[in-house]
Amino acid sequence: MDDLLGILKSEFNEHVDLREKRPNIMQVIAPLYHEDGDMLDIFIDVPRNTGDPIQISDHGLTLMRLSYSYEVDSPTKRKILSRILSENGIEEFEGQLFIRTSPKTLYPDLMQFAQTVAKVCNMRMLKREIIQSLFYETLNDFVSSVLMAYRPQPHYMPIPERDDLDVDWRFPSPSSKDVFLYGVKDTAKARLAVLSCLEYQAKSIPFRSLIIHEDFESSLTKKDQSRITNIADKQFTTLDDFRENAEQYFAREIYQSSLN
Question: Are 29 and 83 in contact (CB under 8 A)?
Fold first, then answer.
């Protein structure tokens, strides 16, 4: 322990200490803080067996702290967390974050771990930026979980010989037109959705088009907004709007139509 403390003191200009919490487990007391001023919960686990790696860990306190204001309770949030950890070389097991280290790399690994803990605790603020980059994954996660009762079929090809015009998700209807869902993040996808719908109409394929936008107002030009509005049967201008109203929409469009 004295060797590890000496290494850290030389890097932190003496402003660090190691406090034994349990045998072979020491808490790092250092000027590393959360935004609210609380010190980061970081521990050094010294191996009992010679040759085993030293481990820097949070003993599960980071995700516990995050849960007070932001639950990692969906596949998309789990992907966001996994991405943060993998990009920073941090592992997770049963809620505990950790990184294996050695005396030679103790200080840089400790700083890397501290930065990662801060990023995880700020997931609620990173949420918008990261979820935007995961728009299609978020949409697919929602469809394949919440909307499974409506038997969604991914990557459906209404025109078999045109695999470039596949539908993101097809929702079959027993007695009415199927619903063809497109996620639209940008102008290129909007134009593909418009072209596809026009081709389906030309082939007399019965369907109702449903367009889910990442952000209708900011991601499309005015001309593209007009084109897709003229062709779409139903649009949701944001993913949040769709998630809030999707079940009501499908209950009306598919379940009620089957009763008529």
Answer: no
